[in-house]
Amino acid sequence: MRVLISGVGVGGPVLAYWLREHGAEVTLVERASTPRTGGQAVDIRGAALTVADRMGVLEQARAVRTTMRGMSMVDGDGNETMRSTEETVSGGRFDSPDIEILRDDLTAIVTAATDAEYLYGDSIAAIDQDEHGVDVTFESGARGRYDYVVGADGLHSNVRDLVFGPEHQFLHHLGTYVSIYTAPNFLGLDHWQVWHHEGEAGFGLFSDRDTDVMRVNLGFEAGPIDYDPRDTEGNKRLVEEHCSSLRWETPRLIEAMWKADDFYFDAMAQVKMDSWSRGRVTLVGDAGYCASPLSGQGTSLAMVGAYVLAEELGRKLAGAFERYEERMRPFVARNQALALENPGQGASPETVRQAAESIVI
Ligand SMILES: Cc1cc2nc3c(=O)[nH]c(=O)nc-3n(C[C@H](O)[C@H](O)[C@H](O)COP(=O)(O)OP(=O)(O)OC[C@H]3O[C@@H](n4cnc5c(N)ncnc54)[C@H](O)[C@@H]3O)c2cc1C
C-alpha cells in the first residue's frame, strides 16, 4: 500500500507512523522548506495519550511539557486581578494526566519517531484519481501514483481545496482572530502565564523553555475579515489595528510582533463537512474537522484520527474510510462542541476530560 500524506504538522506524522506499522510505504509532503516552528502550547489528552503511549513517545513528550507553575490575570494597567497555581487557561488543571507541550516540540517528536519519506518545500498541484489509484502532480513538477492520498494539511487544507472545493463551504468562523509569535521575555516570566482581555482584544503571554523569550498570543474579536493567512505583513497590520487600544505593555508587544520571524495568524474557525472522504482521498485532523484552539482539542483529534484511519486502512478491507468516519464522527462532534461552550471561559475540566476520553481505541 503506497500512501501520500500532505502536511507535516501533528496528524501527518502520526498517521505515517501507524501506516508504517501496518506495512505501508509512506511519503509526506510539506509546503514549508523545513519543519515548521512557532505556535503556542497544545494539549495531549484522553485517547491521544494512549496513541502517544502506543507510539512509545509518551515519556519523551512528558519530558518536554511546558511545566507551567501558574498564571495571573491582569487589568488594563498590568495589576494582577487573579492568580492561580493550580491551573492555566491554556493547559487546564495541573492535577490531570494531560500533557501541555509546545506545538513545535510535539511535531519534532512525532516526526523523529516516523521512518518515512519526507519531502519539504513542495506541495500537491493536482490530484487525478481512478478506481485503482491516485495520480499526483507536485508543484515541483514531480509525479507519483499512490493507492491513497490523505490531506493532513491543516485548517486551510490544500487537498480539501483540490478534491472537495473552496474552503468557504466548510469553514465556520468563531469571530476571533489570533496571532502567535515569540518576543524577548521583558516581563521576566518564569514558567508563568499572564492573561488580559479588555473590550474586543486581549493577550496571553507565556514563558518559554528558553527563559530569554516569551510566546505572545495577541488576538481580537471581529466579524468575517477578508485576509490571506500567508500575508504576514498584512496580518501584522490587522493585529496592530485591532489591538493597539490595549494598554500596559501592548506597545512593546506590538513592536516585538513587527520584529518576529515566527509570526502566525489565523481565524479561530471550525471545519464541518458531510464527508471527509472522496474515492481514494481522505482528510485527517484540522483539514477535515478542525475544532479550533478554543476547544483545546485540535491536537488530540488529529492524533486519534490518524490512529483510527491507519488502523482501518491497515485492515485492507473495503470500506476503510467509511469505518474511519463512523468511529470518529461522535468524538469529533463532542470535541468541537467544547469550543462553543461557556464562551470566554471555556468548558469545565470535567467536560473536557469526558470529551477527550469519548472514543475507544
Ligand atoms: C504554525 C502553526 C501554529 C499553531 N499554533 C497553535 C497554537 O498555538 N495552539 C493551538 O491550539 N493550535 C495551534 N495550531 C494548530 C494545531 O497545530 C492543530 O490544531 C493541531 O495540532 C492539528 O494538527 P494537524 O496536523 O491537523 O494540522 P497542523 O498542525 O496545522 O499541520 C498542518 C501542516 O500542513 C502544512 N501544509 C499546509 N498547506 C500545505 C500544502 N499545500 N502542502 C503541504 N503541506 C501543507 C502546514 O505547513 C503544517 O505543517 C497551529 C498550527 C500551525 C500550522
From TrEMBL:
- This protein's source sits in the domain of life called Bacteria
**Domain named FAD-binding: residues:** 2-331
Molecular functions per Gene Ontology: FAD binding
Q: Where is this region: Disordered?
A: 71-94
One Pfam entry for this protein is FAD_binding_3
| UniProt name for this protein | 2-polyprenyl-6-methoxyphenol hydroxylase-like FAD-dependent oxidoreductase
| Annotated source species | Streptosporangium saharense
